[in-house]
Design brief:
The chain has 4 helices and 2 strands; from the N terminus they run H-H-H-E-E-H. By secondary structure, the protein is mainly α. The chain is elongated and about 80 Å long. The protein starts with a helix and ends with a helix. The chain has a two-stranded antiparallel sheet with strand order 1-2. The chain has one domain. This is AGRG4 protein.
Length: about 150
């Protein structure tokens, strides 16, 4: 859906309808945040599968992942809309090309907080999970090598 909304965004912005542009920008923002949220959930799942292998039963795990994956971006979008729906709008990058219009976040502070900070937080969580999984794999490998040396003796 992110790709679809992105591809039709400039076409929809060419209609010069503020409501349509706000809706398109909100959908684009939502699906972008949802994609990053699901990427973060995948790293948490990788951590649970490779580090916390045993005794990891989470009741209704898929339901909780779906609520987090689709709900957290919805909360962010709702907060931005409550603060000011006019943060979303039509931004023209070129006067000579009418198809350069793009419906997106127009306010810099809202963009940095609701997109850049969100992506950065996702990046930090993914990096932490990746390092933890790598350390677990390395310790497992070293333990296996020690056992094989003991068996060879």
């Amino acid at each position: 859906m992110l790709n679809m909304v992105f591809l039709i965004n400039s076409w929809l912005s060419s209609f010069n309808q503020p409501g349509l542009c706000i809706t398109t920008a909100v959908l684009l923002h939502y699906f972008l945040l949802a994609a990053f949220t699901w990427m973060c959930l995948e790293s948490i799942h990788l951590y649970l599968a490779l580090v916390k292998v045993f005794n990891v039963y989470v009741p209704k795990y898929i339901l909780k992942c779906c609520i987090a994956g689709w709900g957290i971006p919805a909360i962010v979008i709702t907060i931005v809309l409550i603060i000011n729906k006019d943060f979303y709008g039509n931004g023209s990058h070129s006067e000579s090309n009418p198809f350069s219009n793009f419906c997106w976040i127009q306010e810099d502070i809202a963009f940095y907080i609701s997109v850049v900070a969100y992506v950065f937080l996702t990046f930090l969580i993914n990096t932490a999970m990746f390092i933890t999984v790598l350390l677990q794999a390395h310790s497992l490998k070293s333990r296996t090598q020690k056992r094989s040396r003991v068996w060879k003796r």
